[in-house]
Write a structure and sequence with these properties.
The complex is a heterodimer of chains A (508) and B (303).
Chain A: H1 3-25, H2 40-43, H3 46-54, H4 61-77, H5 80-84, H6 87-96, H7 112-126, H8 131-134, H9 136-166, H10 171-186, H11 197-209, H12 217-222, H13 224-233, E1 239-241, H14 251-255, H15 267-270, H16 276-280, E2 287-289, H17 302-320, H18 325-328, H19 341-347, H20 353-357, E3 363-365, E4 378-380, H21 393-397, H22 408-413, E5 418-421, H23 427-430, H24 437-441, E6 449-458, E7 461-470, H25 480-484, E8 493-496
Antiparallel strand pairs in A: 1-2, 3-4, 5-8, 6-7
Helix pairs in contact in A: 3-4, 4-13, 7-13, 7-17, 9-10, 9-11
Chain B: H1 4-23, E1 40-45, H2 49-58, E2 72-77, H3 93-105, E3 110-113, H4 121-127, H5 130-137, E4 142-144, E5 152-156, E6 165-169, H6 170-174, E7 177-181, E8 183-187, E9 191-193, H7 195-198, H8 214-224, E10 229-238, E11 251-260, H9 263-273, H10 282-289, E12 301-302
Parallel strand pairs in B: 1-12, 2-3, 2-7, 3-4, 7-10, 8-10
Antiparallel strand pairs in B: 1-11, 5-6, 8-9, 10-11
Helix pairs in contact in B: 2-3, 3-5, 8-10
The chains are: A mainly alpha (508), B alpha/beta (303).
Chain lengths: 508, 303
């Protein structure tokens, strides 16, 4: 009987399902305020806590206290989070399983993650926050938002659509019967489409494929959260004995998914308390107990640790030496409530919650608009979707305060950019044709787009036309005009970042 | 056991069969109403909206004139914008509620309410108050639904002037009765949003494209979509910053309902409420030329 293993798999499955359920609730469901704490995963995340605490400005620690609880629990029970709760770990166990080899002599670099953590922490302290790129919880939710969920919707909608069109006997009526359940509970309101879907998917796939090299390759060698929990776990109360393989048996070395008993590892920091060894030990010699055993040292190379820390510390000024985005481009539109750019990048942990919840499908992961280290942070691409006037959902889900929670009245006045008309392509200007779509959709009460009645000459033929004009002081940059502009491809009215509320006027 | 060759052959045969089966059922639609009918119109005023709706329909002899027992009905209000009731961007929820109740009383078997909105559909359905008003009716025969993405189909517009094909929402075309419930609104400088424009809510495609030849395009669309009753909500009207408004200053209370079986007749009268002659509104002129109703109000019989 593998009692412990079965229990663990049950807990892992339930936790994963729980987080998936929260993911599905990360959506407008008829009330302005979300009913559930959908970003719970990141409130539990000590790296998100670090990012928030290291950033300038006030952090709402009331939001992030669960992360402290997790750290405390780790000091008692060890690195249990990695084997019982972490959704990325669960994905690697479940989907990486088939790729794993029966026996494996690859040792890996278990210390690398500590050096990585040191580098990331120093970089973050000095002003360049990169936790988000490697935070396993961010990787999980980002992949879910940008890759898995769009794929699932594509497949399900494709199938239901085809069955609806083909009208097959028996099958189609059955599909119609279950469709409302899928539509209302499991599918997104509209097909999610995102930039960087392939790239994000490729990284998740890579992590799964690395299981071939070694079970839990990511967790053993790279995961910075694993490293942090490992450090807390080293002197935890719950410890395994014996620390290493017994002299007459080396099953632990070959079976332990973390290689926790292998010579080079600091056992108490690597062991993720999955309790599998209780099951596979043929002699029942292994025990987990709250007795204080002597912990084995970390055995990190001081020199490497120093190099990693210094590299991290140097990355920050290096990154800061680049020209500020706002000084040479104007297409970086951040969500409403976003704090000033420098603080924004230091707070945003690239979790993708805001992109998931965005009701207009306007928020997309950035590649380079915000500079070299803006990868996966949210940008508003108004041609693909607009910011709904009375919606405040992105501020509600942001776990680190990168997007502040705005009241609806505040939100209506928050300028995220400014619409400018491209007269070379706008129909009334460029072709002398009537068009009123941008004005029609402009939501600001007193409209920020008005018409001027002008007499124009089309060749020699005089024509009276209504031509749109943007009122700079009223436009909030919501982008609905750019989304709905009927010209094909790039819009004839575009949102630029000029006049954003988050930049105080005196800095312009 | 199938070998690989057989498997491929079988698969291809099945796929072909399914493809053919999918293509066979063709839509047979009744032609749009001709203008031969006598133009009739009912206008009623009053503050109690449910009563006003009932009085307006009573002018025609009640809802049973339009909806018969056992029929399926689509009620198409304007739910286009994420705006509260008092801002007059969407049809008043009590108008929708009462019309649906009247359909039930007339014996309708199934009533669907929907609109292809401009803002996010979920927010519009909630903010407009229409979702909760319909759900209050609490009848199994009534449902307010979001547009089913599978149910759009591209159709020929045989008599189209600006368009010869467009994507339409089949449930609106296939229902026995379509009741059009627009709200009278200012829409940019010289156009109005009335009945004909409201039916843009049951078409697919990139609707912004239509604005380039809006009058002829709307007339084209309206030759395909036949509505049995147009009931224009002018209980309060938006006189500026339409069609979505957002300021109470732009709303005028008029306590009026306008009903006609012919969409253009109703629109023509409603235009006068907003201070225009029907002949000034290109869409109404184009609709009249296609035989969708009477533009000359002196030739309309007021009930």
């Amino acid at each position: 009987m593998r009692v412990n293993r079965n229990w663990r798999i049950i807990v892992q499955s339930l936790t994963l399902l729980g987080f998936l359920w929260l993911f599905l609730q990360t959506e407008y469901r008829g009330t302005d305020e979300l009913a559930y704490p959908v970003s719970l995963l990141f409130r539990l995340d000590p790296l998100a806590l670090f990012a928030a605490v290291f950033a300038p400005g006030d952090s709402d620690l009331l939001l992030l206290w669960p992360a402290l609880v997790l750290l405390c629990l780790t000091m008692v029970f060890g690195r249990f989070f990695c084997s019982w709760l972490c959704p990325l770990g669960t994905l690697l166990d479940f989907f990486g399983g088939p790729f794993r080899r029966a026996s494996n002599s690859f040792v890996g670099w278990p210390k690398a993650k500590y050096y990585l953590l040191a580098g990331l922490t120093l970089a973050s302290l000095c002003g360049l926050q990169l936790f988000g790129l490697l935070d396993p919880l961010s990787i999980f939710l980002r992949s879910l938002t940008l890759a898995i969920n769009p794929l699932w919707n594509q497949l399900a909608n494709g199938l239901f659509g085809w069955l609806y069109q083909a009208d097959l006997p028996l099958v189609s009526p059955a599909a119609d019967l279950v469709y409302p359940f899928f539509r209302d509970r499991l599918l997104a309101f509209r097909q999610p489409v995102f930039l960087l879907t392939l790239f994000t998917a490729a990284i998740l796939l890579l992590l799964v494929l690395l299981e071939r090299l070694q079970p839990r390759f990511w967790c053993r060698n790279l995961c910075p959260l694993g490293a942090l929990l490992g450090i807390c776990s080293r002197h935890s109360l719950l410890q395994r004995s014996p620390l290493t393989d017994c002299s007459d048996c080396s099953l632990c070395t070959s079976h332990c998914r973390m290689g926790a008993t292998a010579g080079a590892a600091a056992q108490s920091a690597e062991c993720i308390r999955c309790l599998d060894c209780l099951d596979f030990c043929p002699n029942q010699r292994i025990a987990f107990s709250f007795s204080k055993g002597e912990a084995k040292g970390f055995d990190l190379s001081r020199r490497t640790l120093l190099v990693a820390s210094v590299s991290g510390a140097i990355m920050a000024p290096l990154a800061a030496a680049a020209p500020l985005t706002g000084t040479y481009r104007n297409d970086l539109i951040r969500p409403p409530g976003a704090v000033v750019e420098d603080e924004f990048l230091r707070r945003c942990i690239r979790c993708g919650e805001c992109m998931k919840v965005c009701i207009g499908g306007a928020l997309h992961p950035d590649l380079l608009r915000g500079g070299a280290f803006s990868l996966w942070s949210p940008v508003l691409i108004a041609r693909l979707g607009y910011c709904e006037l009375d919606c405040t959902l992105c501020g509600q889900v942001c776990p680190t305060g990168a997007i502040r929670l705005l009241k609806v009245e505040e939100k209506r006045k928050t300028k995220i950019g400014l619409a400018v008309i491209d007269r070379d392509r706008c129909l009334p200007f460029a072709r002398g044709e009537e068009c009123l779509v941008c004005e029609e959709h402009c939501p600001t009460g007193k409209k920020a787009i008005v018409f001027d009645r002008r007499k124009v000459l089309l060749g020699s033929e005089p024509k009276e036309l209504l031509q749109p004009r943007v009122l700079t002081e009223l436009c909030i940059g919501c982008g609905i005009c750019e989304t709905r502009c009927p010209v094909s491809g790039i819009s004839a009215i575009n949102i630029i970042s000029e006049g954003e509320s988050r930049i105080p006027l005196r800095l312009l | 056991m199938l070998d690989r060759r057989q498997f491929i052959r079988k698969s291809l045969q099945t796929a072909c069969a399914a493809g053919v089966a999918g293509a066979v059922p063709q839509l047979l639609l009744p032609p749009a109403a001709s203008a031969a009918q006598n133009a009739v119109l009912a206008v009623r005023r009053g503050e109690d909206i449910p009563r006003l709706v009932r009085e307006t329909l009573a002018a025609f002899g009640g809802m049973k004139r339009f909806v018969h027992p056992g029929e399926t009905v689509v009620v198409k209000p304007n739910i286009g914008w994420d705006r509260a009731v008092e801002l007059a961007a969407n049809t008043h929820p009590l108008v929708v509620q009462t019309v649906v109740q009247l359909c039930l009383e007339a014996g309708a078997d199934k009533i669907q309410i929907f609109d292809r909105t401009c803002n996010d559909p979920r927010r519009c359905y909630v903010s407009s108050g229409i979702q909760s008003a319909v759900e209050q009716i609490d009848s199994k025969k009534v449902e307010i639904v979001h547009m089913d993405r599978r149910a759009y189909k591209e159709l020929e517009i045989t008599d189209g002037k600006a368009l010869n094909r467009w994507s339409f929402y089949l449930p609106a075309l296939e229902a026995d009765r379509l009741i059009n419930l627009p709200i009278a609104k200012h829409h940019s400088i010289s156009t109005l949003t009335l009945g004909m424009k409201n039916l843009m809510g049951v078409i697919g495609g990139n609707r912004g494209m239509l604005h380039r030849k809006i009058a002829e395009s709307l007339a084209d669309i309206n030759t395909v979509i036949h509505s049995d009753l147009t009931l224009i909500d002018a209980t309060r009207i938006l006189v500026a910053n339409g069609p979505q408004g957002g300021r109470l200053e732009d709303v005028e209370v008029r306590n009026t309902l306008i009903a006609s079986p012919q969409i253009v007749t109703a629109d023509a009268y409603a235009a006068t409420l907003l201070g225009y002659q029907p002949q000034q509104i290109e869409t109404i002129v184009a609709g009249h030329q296609r035989g969708l109703g009477e533009i000359d109000l002196s030739r309309v019989k007021q009930l």
